[in-house]
C-alpha cells in the first residue's frame, strides 16, 4: 500500500505532500490545477518514462518520493526479493522509492536507499500497483491487449502453456531460419567445397611434416657451404694435431705434452706442481678427443649437388603452401585439419537438410499440440471472463449489456494444422481474441471498438479490471479519469463499484465527477493559485465543510451556492448510506 507521496517541482506543483491510506481516495481539482501531475508523479515513481518538459519552469530538477508499505506475504514478498537483489533496504516493511528528473533530461532512480536502474522501479511496482488511464481504454481496443487481458484472467495453467508454446515457437523459427540458410547457400557451399578439396590435395601431395621447414633450411645452408666448412675443419685439425707439427712446427697437442713433461719433472719437489701437471694431462685428453672429432667432421663434410637441389626443391614446395594457406608449415597443417572438418560439414549438407526438415516437422507437430491446449484453455477462460465482466457491467448501470469474449482462428495454407484445417499462428498461439459488446437490448454484438461509447468503454475497462483483480490481487489501483464520458446514474454506479473494490485494496482515483468523489474514504483536492506569471498547485485533504464546498464546486462550479451545497450534502449522505448497505 502507498502511504505517502512527495512531489517537488513537477509541472505546476511546486511542492506537495500527499498522505494516503487504505480504502478509496479521490483526487479532484479545477481543470489545469495539476491533478494529472499527481498521476504523472506516480508514473515516474513506478518506473515510467521521464520527460524533462515536466520539470517546473525555473527549477533544475523534479523529484518524487513515495513510501510504500510491503506485506511479508503475496505481492509484497515478490517486491522484497527484488529489492534484496538490487541491494536496497526495507525498514519495518516500509520501502522508500524516489525518482529525480533534471531539466536536461537526465533521470535517476532510488529504491531502499540505493541508486538503481529505472527498470528496477518497474519490477518492484509491477506486483504492487495497477495503473489505468484514458490511454488504457484505447489500448483495450487492440486485439493484442484483449488477448493479454484474457490470458491474465485465465491464470497460472494458461501462463505455463503459453511459456511452453513460446519456447517451441522460437525453436521452430530458429530451425526454419537455419534450413532456409542451408538451402539458399547450396551453390556457395559447393564452390567452397571445390576450393577446399583442391587445397587439401595440394597439401596431401607435398605432405609437409611438423618442424620440417626449419630442418631443411639448416641442411640447405650446410650443403651450400660444404667446401668452406670442410676447409675450416681441416685447418682446425692440423692446428690441434698434425703429423708435421703444423706450419709453425708445433701443434696444440705437442705443446701441451711439453708443458706436462716440464711439470711432471718437478712434481717431486712441490705437490702444487704435481696438481698442475694432472690438470694439464686432463687438457691433453680433451684436446685428443676434440682433435679426433674435428678430423671425423672434416672427413664427413662433403658437397652433394644432387641433395642440395632436392632440398631446395622441397623448400620451394613448402613455400608455395605457406604463401597460399598459412604463415608456417605447422599453420598449414592446422589449416588442413580445419579444412577437412569443414569439408565434412559441407559434404553433409544433404543430410543436414534432411535432419532440419525432420526437426521442423516434429516441432510443428509439437507446436500444434501446445496451440490446441492453449486454445482450449482460452476458450474456457473466455466464457468465465465474459460472465464476470457482464456481472460487473450490471452493477455499473449497464443492465442490458451483453459482452462476449470471442476466440477464433484465421485460415492460412502455411499455418499449423489443427482439427483438420491449417490456421495462422504467431508467437502467442493460433487464437484471435476479440471482445464484443451489445450495450443495449436489441442491438447486435459488435467489436468493442465499434460498439462502445466513451462512457461505456470506461465502464467496460473498470469491469474488466475488477474481474482481473480476482485472479491477480494487487494492493493498489490507480485510475486516472476512468469515469470519462460517464454521468448521471452511471457515475453513481461507478463510484459505488470503486468503493466496493476499495474494500479489498487501496484505490486512488483522479476524477471530475462529484458522484464518484462522494464515495471516497479520503478526498484530496489539488488547489491552484497564481500571481499572473507563475502558477503553484498545492494539495490538501478535504474533510467536513471543505469537502462539501469541493463537491459544490464540482456540481455547479460555485462553492457558495446553497442549492449546490444541498445537493452535495445529499450526495454524500446517499453515498454513505450505499456504502453501509
Walkthrough of the structure:
The structure is a single chain. By secondary structure, the chain is an alpha+beta fold. 56% of the residues lie in helices and 18% in strands. A 6-stranded antiparallel sheet has the order 2-1-4-5-6-7. Strands 8-14-15-3-16-17 form a 6-stranded mixed sheet, with helices on both faces. A hairpin with a 7-residue loop joins β12 (432-438) and β13. The longest helix has 46 residues, at 349-394. The chain is elongated and about 150 Å long. The protein starts with a strand and ends with a helix. The mean pLDDT is 84.
Please describe the topology of this protein:
Layout: E1 2-10, E2 13-19, E3 24-29, H1 35-45, E4 61-69, H2 75-86, E5 94-102, E6 107-111, E7 114-116, H3 118-125, E8 129-132, H4 134-139, H5 143-154, H6 156-184, H7 186-206, H8 212-224, H9 226-240, H10 252-265, H11 271-300, H12 305-324, H13 329-347, H14 349-394, E9 402-408, E10 411-418, E11 421-423, E12 432-438, E13 446-447, H15 448-451, H16 454-469, E14 476-480, H17 488-501, E15 506-510, H18 514-517, E16 522-530, E17 535-541, H19 544-556, H20 562-580
Parallel strand pairs: 3-15, 3-16, 8-14, 14-15
Antiparallel strand pairs: 1-2, 1-4, 4-5, 5-6, 6-7, 9-12, 10-11, 12-13, 16-17
Helix pairs in contact: 2-3, 5-14, 6-14, 7-13, 8-12, 9-11, 10-11, 14-16, 19-20
Amino acid at each position: 500500500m502507498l502511504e505517502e507521496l512527495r512531489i517537488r517541482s513537477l509541472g505546476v506543483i511546486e511542492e506537495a505532500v500527499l498522505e494516503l491510506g487504505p480504502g478509496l481516495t479521490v483526487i479532484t481539482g479545477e481543470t489545469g490545477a495539476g491533478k494529472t501531475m499527481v498521476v504523472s508523479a506516480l508514473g515516474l515513481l513506478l518506473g515510467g518514462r521521464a520527460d524533462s518538459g515536466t520539470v517546473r519552469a525555473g527549477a533544475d530538477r523534479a523529484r518524487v518520493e513515495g513510501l510504500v508499505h510491503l506485506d511479508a506475504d503475496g505481492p509484497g514478498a515478490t517486491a522484497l526479493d527484488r529489492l534484496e537483489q538490487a541491494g536496497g533496504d526495507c525498514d519495518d516493511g516500509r520501502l522508500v522509492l524516489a525518482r529525480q528528473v533534471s531539466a536536461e533530461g537526465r533521470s535517476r532512480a532510488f529504491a531502499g536507499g540505493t541508486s538503481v536502474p529505472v527498470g528496477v522501479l518497474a519490477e518492484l511496482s509491477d506486483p504492487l500497483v495497477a495503473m489505468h488511464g484514458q490511454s488504457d481504454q484505447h489500448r483495450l481496443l487492440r486485439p493484442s491487449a484483449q488477448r493479454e487481458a484474457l490470458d491474465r484472467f485465465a491464470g497460472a495453467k494458461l501462463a505455463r502453456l503459453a511459456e511452453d508454446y513460446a519456447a517451441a515457437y522460437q525453436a521452430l523459427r530458429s530451425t526454419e531460419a537455419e534450413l532456409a540458410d542451408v538451402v539458399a547457400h547450396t551453390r556457395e557451399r559447393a564452390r567452397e567445397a571445390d576450393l577446399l578439396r583442391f587445397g587439401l590435395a595440394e597439401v596431401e601431395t607435398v605432405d609437409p611434416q611438423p618442424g620440417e621447414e626449419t630442418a631443411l633450411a639448416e641442411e640447405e645452408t650446410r650443403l651450400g657451404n660444404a667446401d668452406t666448412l670442410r676447409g675450416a675443419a681441416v685447418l682446425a685439425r692440423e692446428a690441434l694435431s698434425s703429423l708435421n707439427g703444423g706450419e709453425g712446427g708445433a701443434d696444440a697437442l705437442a705443446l701441451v705434452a711439453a708443458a706436462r713433461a716440464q711439470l711432471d719433472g718437478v712434481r717431486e719437489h712441490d705437490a702444487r706442481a704435481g696438481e698442475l701437471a694432472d690438470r694439464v694431462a686432463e687438457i691433453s685428453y680433451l684436446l685428443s678427443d676434440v682433435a679426433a672429432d674435428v678430423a671425423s667432421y672434416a672427413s664427413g663434410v662433403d658437397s652433394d649437388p644432387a641433395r642440395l637441389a632436392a632440398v631446395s626443391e622441397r623448400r620451394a614446395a613448402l613455400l608455395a603452401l605457406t604463401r597460399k594457406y598459412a604463415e608456417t608449415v605447422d599453420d598449414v597443417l592446422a589449416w588442413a585439419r580445419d579444412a577437412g572438418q569443414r569439408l565434412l560439414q559441407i559434404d553433409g549438407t544433404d543430410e543436414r537438410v534432411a535432419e532440419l526438415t525432420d526437426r521442423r516437422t516434429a516441432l510443428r507437430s509439437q507446436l500444434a499440440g501446445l496451440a490446441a491446449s492453449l486454445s482450449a484453455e482460452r476458450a474456457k477462460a473466455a466464457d468465465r471472463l465474459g460472465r464476470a465482466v457482464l456481472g460487473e457491467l450490471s452493477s455499473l448501470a449497464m443492465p442490458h449489456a451483453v459482452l462476449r469474449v470471442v476466440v477464433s482462428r484465421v485460415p492460412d495454407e502455411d499455418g499449423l494444422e489443427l482439427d483438420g484445417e491449417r490456421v495462422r499462428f504467431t508467437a502467442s498461439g493460433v487464437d484471435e481474441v476479440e471482445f464484443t459488446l451489445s450495450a443495449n437490448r436489441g442491438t447486435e454484438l459488435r467489436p468493442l471498438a465499434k460498439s462502445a461509447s466513451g462512457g461505456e468503454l470506461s465502464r467496460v475497462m473498470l469491469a474488466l479490471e475488477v474481474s482481473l483483480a480476482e485472479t491477480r490481487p494487487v494492493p493498489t489501483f490507480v485510475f486516472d479519469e476512468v469515469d470519462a464520458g460517464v454521468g448521471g446514474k452511471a457515475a453513481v454506479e461507478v463510484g459505488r463499484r470503486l468503493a466496493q473494490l476499495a474494500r479489498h485494496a487501496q484505490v486512488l482515483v483522479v476524477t471530475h465527477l462529484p458522484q464518484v468523489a462522494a464515495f471516497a474514504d479520503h478526498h484530496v483536492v489539488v488547489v491552484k493559485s497564481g500571481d499572473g506569471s507563475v502558477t503553484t498547485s498545492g494539495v490538501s485533504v478535504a474533510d467536513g465543510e471543505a469537502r462539501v464546498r469541493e463537491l459544490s464546486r464540482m456540481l455547479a462550479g460555485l462553492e457558495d451556492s446553497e442549492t449546490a451545497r444541498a445537493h452535495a450534502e445529499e450526495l454524500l449522505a446517499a453515498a454513505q448510506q450505499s456504502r453501509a448497505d
